Amino acid sequence: MGGWVDCSMLDKNKIQIFTDGACKGNPGIGGWGVLIKYSKTSNELKGFQSQTTNNRMELIAVIEGLKSIKEDAKIEIITDSKYVKNGINQWIVNWKNNGWKTAAKKPVKNKDLWQELDELVQNYSIEWKWVRGHSGHPGNEKADQLANEAILEFYDGNSYPKRRLITGGNVPKSG
């Protein structure tokens, strides 16, 4: 199932977004996966990129998950990436205050994605949760499966010259 999530169906329930990124080589061929659960329905998104890093795939998974939510909603993001969870909740304030430099005065890696994510999170009430990867958590395991399926699709010759390929259907912005 693909497309955007119509929050009018939610009856004010929380939307759960499970995200994961994967990379064969780092840098290398990367994939991202998203499982969105709301009410009694779920939605799956996935995509790939030919030359990337695992951290970029982790960030893109969260970004694409949020972009698929059509309206303002209460969201729970479940990730196995401490890089994403800590970056958006702790480190980003200092990065912005320091002109997108780390505490070591080096440029922040993946600045483009951090800026995109920072803009997106302003539109939602988000609770961030971290789970250990590959520990049997069903939502995380599904997101991991989707990310790895996306990599296989790349290898199967379904490569497109896009930065992100969404295989769940169109994901229109709210408007």
Your description of this structure?
There is one protein chain. This protein is α/β, with parallel strands linked by helices and 175 residues long. The chain has a domain at 7-82 and 116-155: 2-Layer Sandwich (Nucleotidyltransferase, domain 5), CATH 3.30.420. It is 34% helix and 26% strand. It contains four helices and five strands; from the N terminus they run E-E-E-H-E-H-H-E-H. The protein has a five-stranded mixed β-sheet with strand order 3-2-1-4-5. The radius of gyration is 16 Å and the shape is globular. Residues 4-11 and 159-175 have low confidence and may be disordered.
Strand content: 25-35%
Unreliable stretches, pLDDT < 50, 5 or more residues? 4-11, 159-175
Kindly report how far apart the N and C termini lie.
22 Å
What is the averaged pLDDT score? 86
Basic shape = globular
CATH topology annotation of the domain at 7-82 and 116-155: Nucleotidyltransferase, domain 5
Quaternary arrangement of the chains shown? single chain
Structural class: alpha/beta
Strand order of the largest sheet: 3-2-1-4-5
Helix content: 25-40%
- Full CATH superfamily name of the domain at 7-82 and 116-155: Ribonuclease H-like superfamily/Ribonuclease H
What is the count of helical runs? 4
